[in-house]
Each structure stands twice: as structure tokens, then as C-alpha cells.
Amino acid sequence: MKLTTKGRFAVTAMVDLAMQPSREPVTLAEISRRQKISLSYLEQLFSKLRRHDLVDSLRGPGGGYRLAKDIGQVSIAEIILAVDEPIDATQCRGKEDCHGDKKCITHDLWTRLNEHIFDYLGAVTLKHLVDDQNATQRGVAQAVQDMRGLPKRERSTLAA
Question: What number of other Cβ atoms are within 10 A of residue 79's Cβ?
């Protein structure tokens, strides 16, 4: 299975939006700057995310996007499917015509893989990813704080 930039960028942008501390709208320009994703690409993705009721948009000064649902209620599979990204490892896109007009001998393997991938992505929510990011950031901040408490000689030894 190949997940294209469409699915990866949609998930990245939604995690970025979910990580913002307030419920105030966030502009796509801000997400674009933080995540290094083209603004025009984000506009296309967020149009689809809005149509699938994953984000709300607010127009005018102070406008932007915010999540339409609680972060614990938005699965990664939902985001990927909303931007028309297929979750499919089969060569035939599930049509069972991968070997001429018949399914290939490994079709059922790839179909079961699709089911596992979809189940996994359906079980992972934005909350899981935000919690993971926050834990990682706290860990880095704690490591920096710990290093600042060490004498300079010990810091240079640890950094090497």
C-alpha cells in the first residue's frame, strides 16, 4: 500500500490543528508555515475535510479552521478517506480483476492486509497522536532541563 502525500499531509495538518492550545480558528497559512505544506494544497485538502464535517471554517478577520469534533472522536482512517485517499494494497483496487479478468493468487492476502490497515488507522485518533507529540516534547524539554543542571564538563561528555 502506498499512502500518497494527500493522505499524509491531511493527517499532518489535522494533528497540527488539534495541537493548538485554544479553540480559536487557525489559518491555513499558519499550518502551511509550521508544517511546510503548500497553502494551495492545504486549501484543497481542507475543502474536502470541511465537506466531511471534520473541520469548521470561519470567514473574515480572525477566521480560519477549527476541528468540528473532539480529537478523541476523529480517526486517522476518517481523515484519509475524507481526502479521497484509498486504503488499498491490492493491485486491482479491490475489483478482483488483477490477473486479467480474474483475481490474482495473492489477492486475498492484500485484501486482508487492507482490513488490518483500515482497522489500525480506524483505532488511532487525533488524541492519540497529540498525546504522543506532547509526551515527546515534554521528554525533550525535560532532557534539556536536566542537561542545564549538569556542570559544563558533564554536559559536553553527554553530548559527545
Answer: 26
